[in-house]
Specification:
With 287 residues, the protein is mainly beta. The protein has a single domain (24-280), classed as Jelly Rolls. It is built from three helices and 15 strands. The chain has an eight-stranded antiparallel sheet with strand order 1-4-13-6-7-8-9-15. A seven-stranded antiparallel sheet has the order 2-3-14-5-10-11-12. β7 (102-108) and β8 (117-123) form a beta hairpin. Mean pLDDT is 88; it is low at 1-24. The structure holds 2-acetamido-2-deoxy-beta-D-glucopyranose (2 copies). One 2-acetamido-2-deoxy-beta-D-glucopyranose is lined by residues 24-25, 74, 76, 146, 218, 220. Glycans are attached at residue 110. Its EC number is 2.4.1.207. This is Xyloglucan endotransglucosylase/hydrolase.
């Protein structure tokens, strides 16, 4: 058997090429597992598309097989269309255990034509209470849009179609815990939350419109997987996932916050009568 044959080298290059394609995101079969809801969660188009659905009996959910510690994670979602009131689509990173860290996107549905709310939160050491909510500048049910989390030792940035909407800076030096050591998995689920989701619970889920379905595609993680993370973060620090916002990014962030932010825990004096959380101090460099 001659190893240098043409057939062998074609096979060799084919394998290399497939490897290169896989580096772009990979497939839902490879990178995720369905965790609940049975066949309400489906992977199709050879692993490139995933859907979750919700009916009166159950919602559904999936999680990543890998854990990540720092990086940039992108996913495209198309949310439940039509009357989605009462439904919540959660897409988040979370570590495990009682003092877990968590970085949340939650999409609160609405009746047809009324706006979704994008609810965000950051948990550190098991404690959240850092909600910010936004309307979106597009209809998130018509097309896929990209929702990203950039997480490095200095900051967490939430992005929507590459527009930064929220930045949570590392403020450990003033005593605010930051997610720094616990690796996180990616989770998503679609469930019924009509006791609070839409107009604070006034609008209930219309089960005659079930099943409700959300779609996912084009997952990318430029991230340190827990296994690689034994090596230090510095091996990533030259890459975009170490980035901070430049002037352009800061302008976009201000634009989103000015025109689309509808709730900010940092300005909710009624909720924090003893004083706002330390990271909310406008004179500090952490806001
Ligand atoms: C739903 O629409 C109403 C009316 O426009 C709005 O007040 C509310 O913020 C919207 N979103 C949710 C999730 O309730
Ligand atoms: C994933 O990465 C590829 C290659 O950089 C890019 O073309 C694609 O748009 C990315 N997907 C998302 C959802 O950002």
């Amino acid at each position: 058997m001659a190893f240098g044959s043409a057939a062998m080298s074609v096979a060799f290059w084919w394998v290399l090429l497939m490897g290169a394609f896989r580096a772009y995101g990979g497939s839902f079969y490879e990178d995720f597992e369905i965790t609940w809801g049975g066949d309400r969660a489906k992977v199709f188009n050879r692993g490139s598309l995933l859907s979750l659905s919700l009916d009166k009996v159950s919602g559904s959910g999936f999680q990543s097989k890998k854990q990540y510690l720092y990086g940039r994670i992108d996913m495209q979602l198309r949310l439940v269309a039509g009357n989605s009131a009462g439904t919540v689509t959660a897409y988040y990173l979370s570590s495990e255990g009682a003092s877990h860290d968590e970085i949340d996107f939650e999409f609160l549905g609405n009746v047809s034509g009324d706006p979704y709310i994008l609810h965000t939160n950051v948990f550190t050491q098991g404690k959240g209470n850092r909600e910010q909510q936004f309307y979106l500048w597009f209809d998130p049910t018509k097309n896929f849009h990209t929702y990203s989390i950039l997480w490095n030792p200095q900051r967490i940035i939430f992005l929507v179609d590459n527009y930064p909407i929220r930045e949570f800076k590392n403020a450990e030096e003033i005593g605010v815990p930051f997610p720094r050591t616990q690796p996180m998995r990616i989770y998503s689920s679609l469930w019924n939350a009509d006791d609070w989701a839409t107009r604070g619970g006034l609008v209930k889920t219309d089960w005659s419109k079930a099943p409700f379905t959300a779609y996912y595609r084009n997952f990318n993680a430029t991230a340190c997987t827990a296994a690689d993370c034994a090596k230090s973060w510095s091996s990533f620090s030259g890459s975009s996932s170490a980035a901070e916002l430049d002037a352009f990014g800061r302008r976009r962030l201000r634009w989103v916050q000015k025109y689309f932010m509808i709730y900010n825990y940092c300005t909710d004096l009624k909720r924090f009568p003893q004083g706002l959380p330390p990271e909310c101090n406008r004179r500090s460099k952490f806001l």
